[in-house]
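Thread amino acids onto this structure.
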């Protein structure tokens, strides 16, 4: 892989957010790291600070079933090939990426060159260790595990890795989730996959990016009566050796009739109704450690492969076919924190310190940020047929930066510029919670762990200035966004002028709080039915969907928060016979490692980080209907 040239004399190293080997802005505190992952460091598991273990969910024991059998979701029609990209670079065009550049002659099975089947993936295989799935009968800190749950405390090596997250917060491997509410608001909720704007008509195809939700209003409508769900199917977790300690497989997507995910060995598609494996594509160039796009566009995803994530692959996840694989051939170093976003025929890749764009049909590089540019785009996501990008200016972004939206043709739709300081202190914009309206998280000051350092800002409609500051206390409320990710903020749901955030109450009953975006003030809060832990994760039919966590005695539940009544009502009571599996799956170490996905009255609970200390009973996927 080519390396970036040395900087000219008397100029800082390239990259709007500093060199890969340096700590983020603020003398080692995670001000830059919260929003932009810095390449070159080992990626410990990202996530927000640990919270309480699951406790009593809603629903009374012994109650009869609520609902009725649900019809299977309709099948999505296959996608059509997109037209060549008309994208015009915001930079001077970089050198075209020739076939096999830097990797030798393009031959079948090498992973680069012509977009033939088997270029970046091996030959599709028969069902492997993750499928077919078997039929079925929280988040936060790791509490003492009840007998039979199968999830154990991590060993000392894992604890050291976890401690490194909070000590350095330098690597995040993120997921991006972008939701489009039926009220017209667009919420960033992904990740790796984790994470949308790729769902339904908002994302340009029938598939949905699914890290933490399904696309707000695109899930087929809520049931008229609560569902007494059964565990339809499950998938076991991969085996993790003591030497490996942890395996991350970040990337989940929902189609109308399929659930597609990254596993350590490749991509696997499951029939959403039966759990049978539709297809699998084994990785040839990596083992799932590189990041995929969190959105889907025209049934396609983009993902990086290779030892240093230096190759770009595009896959049609409806057909299970590789479209193309090509080398990035970039001056910017890439690693497991580099992340692609796909829109139509264009893929944009952010590295944390630079960026580049590619045409899928032409297999050409369309643009690349120059090391001499003072301002550089460093991260991308897709929302509502728009590229949303983050730009940093100056050394370690000390001059500020911007959040902007462009269409696939490269036309700028809007742009919010921010200064490098706020209230006479250094300002770093970390993540985007929502696009319409634009709501962002930020760090003010050099000490990201100091009281009051974490902020949430609402930007005015003209994208000129900060209009409102949310009354956010990082000690009282959970972090809506995964650390070191641009748009994976599914714990913060924006709908109809309100931001919904969960409170952080260790080992007790928490609640979902509604903040008025026009004033920044909390107006009301909704506790879990009958107590316990509750987290918002999606918007459907004008209501906020929330997951009530399973405990060591009761199963979990999906509820809907109605803004009109300011109350939660049951939507789906989960299978009591599968309570231990549910608790084991959702009682993970980091908040954003487990995700809840809703589509056509089907709930998918999925894990994306696996530990050698996990017992064999810990599943990786549970699907209810």
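Threaded sequence (625 positions):
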């Amino acid at each position: 892989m080519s390396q970036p040239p040395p900087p000219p004399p008397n100029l800082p190293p390239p990259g709007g957010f500093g060199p890969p080997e340096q700590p983020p802005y603020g003398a080692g505190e995670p001000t830059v790291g919260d929003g932009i992952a810095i390449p070159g460091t080992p990626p410990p598991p990202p996530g927000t600070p640990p919270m309480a273990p699951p406790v009593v969910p809603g629903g009374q024991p012994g109650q009869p079933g609520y609902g009725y059998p649900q019809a299977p979701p309709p099948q999505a029609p296959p996608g059509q090939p997109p037209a060549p990209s008309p994208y015009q670079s915001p930079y001077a065009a970089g050198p075209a990426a020739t076939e096999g550049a830097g990797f030798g002659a393009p031959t079948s099975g090498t992973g680069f060159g012509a977009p033939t089947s088997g270029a970046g993936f091996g030959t599709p295989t028969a069902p492997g260790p993750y499928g077919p799935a078997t039929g079925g009968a929280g988040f936060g800190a790791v509490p003492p595990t009840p007998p039979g749950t199968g999830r154990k405390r991590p060993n000392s090596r894992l604890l050291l890795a976890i401690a490194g997250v909070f000590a350095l917060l330098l690597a995040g491997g993120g997921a991006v989730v972008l939701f489009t509410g039926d009220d017209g608001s667009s919420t960033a909720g992904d990740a790796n996959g984790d994470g949308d704007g790729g769902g339904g008509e908002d994302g340009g195809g029938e598939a949905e990016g699914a890290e933490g939700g399904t696309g707000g209003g695109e899930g087929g409508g809520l049931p008229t009566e609560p569902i007494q769900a059964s565990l339809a199917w499950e998938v076991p977790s991969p085996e993790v050796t003591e030497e490996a300690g942890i395996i991350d497989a970040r990337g989940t997507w929902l189609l109308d009739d399929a659930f597609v995910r990254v596993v350590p060995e490749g991509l696997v598609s499951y029939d959403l109704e039966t759990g049978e494996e539709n297809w699998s594509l084994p990785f040839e160039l990596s083992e799932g450690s590189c990041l995929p796009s969190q959105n889907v566009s025209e049934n396609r995803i983009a993902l990086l492969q290779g030892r240093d994530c230096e190759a770009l692959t595009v896959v049609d996840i409806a057909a299970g076919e590789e479209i193309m694989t090509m080398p990035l051939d970039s001056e910017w170093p890439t690693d497991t924190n580099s992340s692609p976003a796909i829109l139509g025929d264009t893929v944009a890749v952010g590295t944390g310190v630079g960026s580049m764009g590619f045409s899928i049909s032409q297999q050409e590089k369309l643009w690349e940020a120059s090391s001499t540019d003072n301002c550089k785009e460093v991260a991308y996501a897709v929302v509502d047929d728009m590229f949303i990008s983050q730009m940093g200016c100056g050394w370690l972004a000390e001059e500020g930066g911007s959040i902007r939206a462009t269409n696939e043709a490269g036309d700028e739709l809007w742009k919010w510029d921010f200064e490098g300081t706020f209230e006479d202190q250094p300002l770093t914009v970390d993540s985007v919670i929502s696009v319409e309206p634009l709501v962002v998280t930020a760090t003010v000051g050099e000490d990201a762990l100091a009281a009051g350092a974490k902020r949430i800002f609402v930007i005015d409609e003209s994208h000129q200035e900060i209009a409102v500051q949310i009354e956010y206390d990082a000690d009282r409320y959970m972090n809506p966004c995964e650390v070191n990710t641009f748009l994976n903020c599914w714990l913060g749901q924006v709908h109809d002028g309100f931001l919904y955030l969960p409170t952080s109450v260790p080992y007790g009953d928490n609640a979902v709080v509604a903040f008025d975006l026009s004033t920044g003030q909390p107006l009301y809060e909704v506790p879990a039915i009958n107590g316990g832990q509750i987290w918002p994760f999606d918007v459907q039919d004008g209501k906020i969907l929330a997951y009530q966590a399973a405990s060591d005695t009761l199963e979990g539940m999906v509820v809907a928060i109605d803004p009109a009544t300011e109350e939660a009502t049951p939507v789906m009571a989960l299978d009591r016979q599968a309570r231990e599996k549910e608790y084991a799956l959702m009682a993970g170490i980091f908040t954003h490692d487990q995700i809840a996905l809703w589509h056509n009255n089907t709930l998918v609970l999925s894990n994306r980080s696996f530990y050698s200390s996990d017992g064999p009973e810990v599943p990786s996927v549970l699907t209810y209907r």
